[in-house]
Design goal:
By secondary structure, the chain is an alpha+beta fold. The chain has 13 helices and ten strands.
């Protein structure tokens, strides 16, 4: 019998206890992995948002609590247009309101004249007409969710907008929402003259990061968003999610470690005579340590695999809800599953240290006499 098979057979001695321990650890790992998937998905959606429309980078108000709370004035946009490296500035006002069955329907107010620069590839129909006030372009995801076609009417804030185009940018948040005339969104949001973000298209050959750094240096009240790392300057939400994720990971390791310790301590007590016999047969302390640690590690590796599978299934079920799928698409990255594996290994080591130490310290004579 191989050493690995011997370890596995030891776990099967108490199937119910082993199964319950695996289930408990799996739930913790499921939480860690599922939350990691959604955090990564939220980051990907945010990155799509700040680089939407084919822009080189975006500009928002520094210190905003949330990306949608950022406000830029006409003077801010005019200051950005003064840079020689800037080819075009598109001001976009974001709004969220209930449309149809979706209580969090994104609206993007854009000046129709800016759509020559702001890329929103049409699937069918046409773009907003210059000076239009009651027209709307739907993302293909939003059109499918609302069951709307060209010529249909969509109600937003008790106002009626006629669908003139359906677009597909490839960005989940944009395609799950709609593009409307900037003046219309400013009117019903009561934010005349304000936009949320400025999308910057630079001239050919421009060093984007250098320009972004210069804008921030010359305008301290503005924050440039070149990539996801810059989002924290205008949105604290992702940092909070990362902190929550870390907290839950630590909690899962602690609780899982206690569960493993409980299981392994009971196993060591029940098998005291067995350990004495093994020591009498010539097993060294290191071998006993390897066996106990190996059992705990195998237990947690099974839980990590099971928990990761549950996390994937859970995230797939959650995004079946249109309200969720309009915001994010699950991103399954290797680092999320490696974190789940790391939690499993940490739980095994934390929970098995004391039981392994106790088993290794037993003398053969004492262990064989144990009742």
């Amino acid at each position: 019998m191989s050493f690995t098979f011997f370890i596995f057979s030891n776990l099967l001695r108490q199937k119910v206890r082993t199964g319950l321990t695996v289930l408990g650890i799996s739930i913790g790992i499921t939480t860690v992995v599922a939350l990691g998937i959604f955090v990564n998905s939220a980051k990907a959606a945010t990155e799509e948002l700040i680089l939407a429309g084919g822009a080189d980078f975006a500009v928002g108000r520094a210190g905003s609590a949330d990306l949608t709370f950022s406000t830029l004035t006409a003077d801010d946009l005019a200051a950005l247009r003064e840079y020689d490296e800037v080819e075009h500035v598109s001001g976009v006002l974001m709004a969220i309101s209930k449309v149809g069955s979706n209580p969090y329907f994104f609206q993007f107010g854009i000046d129709p004249n800016d759509l020559d620069f702001f890329e929103a590839p049409l699937v069918e129909g046409e773009t907003l007409a210059a000076g239009a006030e009651n027209q709307i372009m739907l993302g293909d995801g939003a059109a499918g969710q609302l069951g709307a076609e060209i010529g249909d009417t969509v109600e937003i804030r008790d106002l009626s907008f006629v669908v003139v185009g359906i677009y597909d940018t490839g960005a989940t948040t944009f395609d799950g929402g709609a593009i409307l005339p900037l003046a219309a969104v400013q009117d019903y949001e009561r934010k005349q003259g304000l936009v949320t973000l400025a999308y910057i298209h630079t001239r050919s050959g421009t060093e984007v990061q250098a320009l972004a750094d210069r804008i921030e240096e010359e305008h301290p009240n503005l924050a440039t968003l070149v990539d996801l790392a810059d989002v924290g300057d205008v949105d604290q939400g992702l940092q909070i999610l990362d902190a929550v994720n870390l907290g839950i990971t630590i909690l899962a390791v602690f609780i899982g470690g206690i569960a493993v310790m409980n299981t392994m301590v009971m196993a060591v007590f029940e098998r005291t005579r067995e350990f004495g016999i093994l020591r009498a047969l010539g097993w060294r302390t290191r071998r006993i340590l390897q066996m106990v640690l190996g059992e705990a590690l195998l237990l947690c590796l099974i839980a990590a695999v099971f928990g990761s599978i549950l996390a994937v299934a859970l995230t797939q079920m959650i995004v079946l809800f249109p309200t969720v799928s309009a915001f994010i698409t699950p991103h399954y990255t290797l680092d999320v599953f490696l974190r789940g594996l790391a939690v499993g290994i940490s739980v095994a080591l934390l929970g098995a240290i004391y039981p392994a130490y106790r088993a290794a310290r037993l003398s053969p004579a004492q262990a064989i006499r144990y009742e």
